[in-house]
Amino acid sequence: MQLDFINKSVLAMMVAFVSVNASGNNVPDKISTAEAITDIDSLVSYIEGVEVEPYANLSRDVFMAAVEREKSAFPADSVDKGSFFLTLSRLTGMFRQGHMGFIPDDNVFADMEVFIPFSKLLSVSSADHKVSITTDTVVQGVRVAKGMELVSINGRNAVEMVDDYLPMVPCETNAFGCIGLSRSLGYYIAASNPGITSYDVVLMRDGRKEHHKFKGVAANDLISPAKEQSKPYDYSMLNDSVMLFSFNSCWWNKDFSNFLRKMFKEANDNNVPHLIIDIRSNGGGNSSAGDEVCRFITGNAFNGFGGYKCRISRIVCENYNDKFEKDTIYSALGMDDLSLYLPYDEKYRYKGRTYLLIGPATFSSAAKFSWAYKNFVDGLVIGEETGGVNICVGDIVSATLPNSGFRVMLPWKVFYEYGAKDGDPIHGTLPDIAVPADEALDRALQLIAAGGGE
Predict the structure, then answer these.
(1) Does the N terminus or the C terminus of the chain have fewer Cβ atoms within 10 A?
(2) pTM summary value
(3) What's residue 283's pLDDT?
(4) pLDDT score recorded for residue 291
């Protein structure tokens, strides 16, 4: 067993949850009720066979009672694709795990012409669950503006819809769930309205309600926002004294290591006194990337992780192609100082002051990096609590349900951030200075300008 592999490899949901289906759109429009029941039984078997402690935070009796309720609610003959997706999502959502569940995408729902045409232009507020438009555009002759509120759809209040769908979204925190729902709300609405041809929509413009009717469209015909040219990592000088490191993904390879060496050398050669590290949109990747950053910004031995548990099941072996011993549980809790990573020699480390920007979208390996920063780096954390939490599942494998073809993502490890232990309250990295995530950069610059960042 490669313990170093267990400690370091944390996959991001944003990267790995690319589809609920393993083979394009080969999900049938309907399956028989008997087949649906078999698929749910398979789902339960997969969860219990892969996860280390699937019922650590959820009573098995409560979950199995929900399973039986879902089965008994099926129609007598068959179940349509959308309804079954919602059923499966309700069940996996009960576990409140950000790396477990079903994520919809265009491939699976491509043949459904029931989407609200601006489904990809929605944002769900974590504060009040209101839904707003993200982009100025024209939708079937109706000009909509960024910031307009979506009040209702076919008589259903938008906030109530968010409240209904949020428990289905893979997440540990509601704030992170709202980010996921912003990308997928249209899919949940389409799944709830099979065969519908149009939507009666109420929008709010400048305090006045507008009533519009929009024809349902196919997934491929949805209006998409302009693609952002976001790099996984980059840096720039904001002014003569502040460098911004946009750490948008925990991308780990030789190029990233070389990038960091260049960036920190330039910062030191030019005596840049302030470095802002922005991970507000970092959904994770390989935790080694964050470890490498830490080596340049602290003189302390460090680690974001304090322990782990993992289960080596048949599915894990099949997914990873490794010669692990099957049906074995490994654990290393309360890891000691020998598990800490060493920083680089002082001559290579950054000499100035650092600031870390975090938010609800900071997840998985990025959250682990933020935890290491908070505990071992002499800097300021600014923004909102991270979406990734102190005791969390991670590293995923997939399993395909036999009849529907839906693919579920299952985590096979439990990670403990440094110092966390069973029974602790579950929370993400908490900021030193709490402000809305989208205001964190401005707040950091204000602190620096006022001399408060010293």
Answers:
(1) C
(2) 0.88
(3) 93
(4) 96
At 289, list the tokens. Answer: 């990337």
- pLDDT score at 454: 54
CA distances from 100 to 16, 69, 260, 305, 335 (A): 11, 21, 32, 20, 26
Amino acid occupying residue 203: L
Question: Per residue, what are the HEC states of the chain?
Answer: CCHHHHHHCCCCHHHHCCCCECCCCCCCCEEEHHHHHHHHHHHHHHHHHHCCCCCCCCCHHHHHHHHHHHHHCCCCCEEEHHHHHHHHHHHHHCCCCCCCECCCCHHHHCCCCCECCCHHHEEECCCCCCEEECCCEEECCEEECCCCEEEEECCEEHHHHHHHHHHHCCCCCHHHHHHHHHHHHHHHHHHHCCCCCEEEEEEEECCEEEEEEEECECHHHCCCCCCCCCCCEEEEEEECCEEEEEECCECCCHHHHHHHHHHHHHHHHCCCCEEEEECCCCCCECHHHHHHHHHHHCCCCECCEEEEEEEECHHHHHHHCCCCCCCEEEEECCCCHHHCECCCCHHHCCCCEEEEEECCCCCCHHHHHHHHHHHHCCCEEEECCCCCECEEEEEEEEEECCCCCEEEEEEEEEEEECCCCCCCCCCECCCCEECCHHHHHHHHHHHHHHCCCC
Rounded to 10 degrees, the C-alpha dihedral 222/225/230/232 comes to -30
Measured in whole angstroms, the distance separating CA 171 from the mean position of its chain's CA atoms is: 7
pLDDT tens for each residue of 120-143: 999 999 999 999 999 999 999 999
φ and ψ at residue 92, rounded to 5 degrees:
-70, -30
Residues of the chain with pLDDT under 70: 1-25, 106-107, 228-229, 322-325, 334-338, 452-454
